[in-house]
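Anyone? Bumping this.
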Amino acid sequence: MPELSVRGSRSRKPIMVLFDLLGRRWAMGVLWTLCTSGPCTFRDLQDQCGSVSPSVLNARLKELRNAKLIGHSGQGYHAEPLGFELHERLVPLGAWSRSWAALLASDAPEARHETAFTQPDRSSGS
Amino acid sequence: MPELSVRGSRSRKPIMVLFDLLGRRWAMGVLWTLCTSGPCTFRDLQDQCGSVSPSVLNARLKELRNAKLIGHSGQGYHAEPLGFELHERLVPLGAWSRSWAALLASDAPEARHETAFTQPDRSSGS
DNA sequence: CTCGATTGCTACTGAATCAGTAGCACAGCG
DNA sequence: CGCTGTGCTACTGATTCAGTAGCAATCGAG
């Protein structure tokens, strides 16, 4: 029963519980898409998020639904009030991320092929 | 070379790049700890985050450093200006998470053993 | 310098999660 | 009935994570 042992939100602090929920592949992306692109169907979400695996998408959808962040109606999936609230707190991140990305790009122009974080090497100690 | 192929931040949008960076185990937790508990050593971080694997912690540390969010001095690891900026945007999440957790707890008091998201089961026992 | 303690980090194994593909059940339409 | 669209599950292989052990370097004490 890995449900009650592994991802036990290592802490009781709500912020850590939230980080545990959002710190999963596509969790924030799905919420963001649902809040910015309006209601989407399962397959719309797959397409807009870059062909996520249906298994993973379904898992995130269930978790997000259990967290009361999103819901599912006849028109597809949609963000619920709580989800929009969280999204509101995430919006500043979107603005900040742009200046941050610009700074990173200007600081290491030749190193930002893809992710820019997972460098192949950082040798040259000291 | 998984560095340039897998986690390609499925999108070019900075927000998705950021979500890709933060959407990993302990990424946000490490930054949060560094910003709230001040400079920490490698092992302090391990302890305060709940015994993270050194391999994973080291990976997050490298990514966060490449992202210019944190740095490493003689006194241990510490958040850099950029990291504090991001933390500032994360603080509202902390406040919101508390009311959210309270709502979730009052809505399903007997279901919030641990994570409250990963339901133990949903497919009738067969 | 040697001892012991601390720090930063790597290596290894097994488990959990993720990606990618195929396919099924159900509903609406002609 | 056949066709299309939607929601979702199952399966396999790859990636990531957890947990443990251990090593090189550093620092204070003797």
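Late reply, but here is one note on the structure posted above: Helices of chain A lie at 14-22, 27-36, 42-48, 54-66, 81-107.
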